Amino acid sequence: MQLERIRNISLRDKVMSAEQASEFIKDGMTVGMSGFTRAGEAKAVPKALAERCKQQPIKINLMTGASLGNDLDKILTESGSLARRMPFQVDTTLRKAINNGEVMFIDQHLSEMVEQLRNHQLTRPDVAIIEAVAITEEGHIVPTTSVGNSASFAVFAEKVIVEINTLHSDKLEGLHDIYIPSYRPSRTPLPLEKVDDRIGCTAIPIPPEKIAGIVFTSTPDSYSTVSGPDVETAAIAGHLVRFLKDEVAQGRLPKNLGPLQAGIGNIANAVMMGLLDSDFEDLTMYSEVLQDSTFDLIDAGKLRFASGCSVILSERMNSKVFDNIEAYQDKLVLRPQEMSNHPEIVRRLGIIAVNTALEFDLYGNVNSTHVCGTKMMNGIGGSGDFARNANMSIFVTKSIAKNRAISSVVPMVSHVDHTEHDVDILVTDQGLADLRGLAPRERAVRVIQNCVHPDYRHQLMSYFERACVRGGHTPHLIEEAFSWHVNLEKHGTMHLEHKQSCDSQQ
Amino acid sequence: MQLERIRNISLRDKVMSAEQASEFIKDGMTVGMSGFTRAGEAKAVPKALAERCKQQPIKINLMTGASLGNDLDKILTESGSLARRMPFQVDTTLRKAINNGEVMFIDQHLSEMVEQLRNHQLTRPDVAIIEAVAITEEGHIVPTTSVGNSASFAVFAEKVIVEINTLHSDKLEGLHDIYIPSYRPSRTPLPLEKVDDRIGCTAIPIPPEKIAGIVFTSTPDSYSTVSGPDVETAAIAGHLVRFLKDEVAQGRLPKNLGPLQAGIGNIANAVMMGLLDSDFEDLTMYSEVLQDSTFDLIDAGKLRFASGCSVILSERMNSKVFDNIEAYQDKLVLRPQEMSNHPEIVRRLGIIAVNTALEFDLYGNVNSTHVCGTKMMNGIGGSGDFARNANMSIFVTKSIAKNRAISSVVPMVSHVDHTEHDVDILVTDQGLADLRGLAPRERAVRVIQNCVHPDYRHQLMSYFERACVRGGHTPHLIEEAFSWHVNLEKHGTMHLEHKQSCDSQQ
Asked: For residue A474, what is the nearest residue in chain B, using CA coordinates?
């Protein structure tokens, strides 16, 4: 039964245990693994590797598409096998190790890592471990629920280990569109002009002799933990849907808005859910991760086509989609993240990009990654790929956090992932600020009036007014720009009245 | 004589004085003007407008390609006619008005403004004023020494005023390649695959009836004020050339490096001059501004082809090039800035981008625009268009400024124009830091060891070490991150020993 998934018969004698396959990985190696937003990651071999580390210390440089499911980042971190990790993660244990300086984490635009491998600007993987639905007659690899960087990892690696996960239906074959840009400087235009164009092949084309081991698994992907809209995220969605309707009315957007991209997580998911109750029709997505909301929109007849590089679903939606994947075959494609996030395509298609901010400031700079400027949360992910090149770059966040102790709108962000030059629209539960065509002083007034929580409005206006007295194109009180963050670290709140008297001398 | 430059005979009765043409501009209008890095700007009509302002106050929203020559930004600022200005400037008087909040300045990626006009995200110009060499039989406009945003301004404006500058040789015709991307969402790939591809036409195609007035002028472009290499810029060039040679040796770059982009100014010019004495051959440029160094490299047989969107030269080089422009016709093309800086092309061609930083920090974030976080210098220009999408993104700066009072390498930049995610290589006169594939803590060590001036090395290492004790992926002492800038503002130096005792309590 299982062996039928290996349609290239000469490869059937490469089947081995995860423990055996893990032996290909030696201390100091660079390993490229499938897996993007906890979907489609290799599951058995990394676990076996972590086990081996208990006997003999092995340190690897681990590259993936994005985050891993099944606690793999936790397990690998605890085993001590991660020397370096890129380009993204969401795991609490790994995050701690990164912030302690124990794991070197390289936080990268998700479309760029493979380009840097292609140019040898990063070390190419010695071993690639790719989760697959099947191996074709030609020995090509059919991915599962994510493509991520799997195709280029397999192409660049010396050796490839395939994990065939029999829990995934073999009907996933045909869902993927594997296209790899040619080498520069003789690269030709990427031939993708519409979200539903298919320009590549349905499996990862590598010479079969590179496949060094095949492991069978049947562990499911982790389910998405995304929760439904709450009062604040529903308010954010409401502001955004009203704004988009107005943009259409003004002739600035086509009736179906153009292709949509939505970042991962509750807020972006809620925003997409907001479109369910809207009048918009014939919507399309050209995004990175496809979440529950994508399929809710498809099921409701609102969304005509979704292009992504991974699918991560809640338990409810998972069986609904994957048990009926044929019903979605003509509405869905999964591409390599280099293609789903490619600047060339994002600019060409005119994407509306909706991503989540950790905090933003008066002037529209966005922090997506660092708590108080120092502690890594997850990583920039694809937000920069989209925000920079999108038709419209939208960032959403709740106006306050931690029981009002934190304002997400601050005088100056403590880390910049998206500069004022790349941010068009800011939305919180309080309202929406359209920053297009505005100078910094004008942006500030709109952000204060529309986005900041009332608890912090006076405090932010006070900062801005005093900064304006001092002057400058972008008025700041440089010695006070981080006073909210400092106060948070010292006194647990950004409310400045809660500070010690000694600070007031500053 | 002059009239022969208007080859469409029906347009010859549109000739008028600059004063008459300026009457098309009414209070509150948006005006799109030719001019990029002080080359090819309309010269007579804006002056006449400034004169009119003495009688009746007129406020306009002025858009250009980039900076204007002939003191026009100064003259317009002093006349009080600038309400808004975008996307770039370099003028002292205008800069002061911007920093005083008197002129609203929108500092934008140079490739993006026209895209925002196309989508009506910015107000389209009521009037376009375009400097030209000639008007063709079809009524199309042949630009002069820059293309900038002229083509799209002329296409989008209600009325077009053409300034035919007879000082420019009519042999410039044929130099330009005017291509305008189609509307989204049905845009097709930009068909440019090599730096010397010509994909458009040689004049700006507009219906002749849009031309409302034609003014003859004979004022030259301002000369470039770029100076030759000094000890520090020569050192920067030396570090960079050595690095590039090594990249070729390692197989990470082709022998001719791939297309080069260099920002404007003395440092980038010096870097390009450094290539003159190198072994590199068959070089190409796909850049924004072509400066003296471009033509020195062409004349030396080092540079095969240069694509830009404007040419700005010193007095010496100006006559050498423009008196013999035929000799350069097959080595040169001028494109709209949307094309010279387009993300799609920059990524496809694999450009080596060299731009100047005002300051950069421990972790590779770059400030290109704001002095001490508040005061606008010039603007981001095209640096972001290139840095984000380039094969290799290099930033150069002298390690110190203002007689050692300022270190260009700081704990945290006071404004971010290019994030750590978009910066590969940093170079100062002290040395070069290759940040590719490094985590923040690793980047910091390289920056301290290689880039910072010895005067500040200990002080920066002290900051970094103390920050590491506190921890975080990107270690910072958030309350001290701007202490160097604060010290500079209070005591005129970034040397912290020169601070008042009261500060030491912080």
From this structure: B374
